[in-house]
Amino acid sequence: MAAKALSFDVGDYVVYPKHGVGRVIELQKQEIAGMQLELYVLRFEKEKMTLRVPTNKAESVGMRKLSSDKTLREALETLKGKPKVKRTMWSRRAQEYEAKINSGDLVSIAEVVRDLFRAEDQPEQSYSERQIFEAAASRLARELAAMEQVDEPTALEKILDILRKAAAIWNKDKVPA
User: Fold this and answer.
1) Which end of the chain is more exposed for a tag (fewer CB within 10 A), N or C?
2) Are 90 and 137 part of one and the same domain?
3) Which SMART domains match (predicted)?
4) pLDDT tens across 40-59, in order?
């Protein structure tokens, strides 16, 4: 068996791309199909879900430690940027947004949050836009919360605060004629 490039300890917070932030609650050895496997047992509190990941597959599925402070700063800076609205069909954009969220990349998730954010004075979002926005914002907030050791609502409020301030700057350019 190859040397483990990634190693997580019980109690570590980890990011699993498709599910977001979870915690390693135990290391298990199990026999599956006659083979001994070592597994990380991950607990995702928000989804009330437990996931078992073979230790030798952790890297290939994209499991990683929490982002670095530098990556977090970059993601929060991304939120302050001008929203990019593509003029492609919604179904195509929705697929791109979902792919970014499921990549587990904090900066990509921040781009989705920034691009789908609507301030109070902006037009209403469609149901599916709001669903994707909430999924991305929640994913970003959970990683921020784990890194700053606060709860998710506090982290989400910090994100929304940054977005509101940025929207005030970008929207003042669009003064009606």
Assistant:
1) C
2) yes
3) CarD_TRCF
4) 999 998 889 999 999 999 98
**Which residue range is the domain that position 126 belongs to?**
69-172
Distance CA 151, CA 140 (A): 12
What angle do the packed helices 127-148 and 69-80 form, to 10 degrees?
140
Q: Show the tokens assigned to 174.
A: 């669009």
**Same structural domain for residues 52 and 134?**
no
Q: What is the 3-state secondary structure (H, E, C) of the chain?
A: CCCCCCCCCCCCEEEECCCEEEEEEEEEEEEECCEEEEEEEEEECCCCEEEEEEHHHCCCCCCEECCCHHHHHHHHHHHHCCCCCCCCCHHHHHHHHHHHHHHCCHHHHHHHHHHHCCCCCCCCCCHHHHHHHHHHHHHHHHHHHHHHCCCHHHHHHHHHHHHHHHHHHHHCCCCCC
- pLDDT digit string (tens) for 121-165? 788 889 999 999 999 999 999 999 999 999 999 999 999 999 999
Could you tell me the pTM of the whole model?
A: 0.86
- Between CA 24 and CA 42 the distance in angstroms is 5
Encode 30-39: b = buried (16+ Cβ within 10 Å), e = exposed: eeeeeeeeeb
C-alpha of 45 from chain center: 15
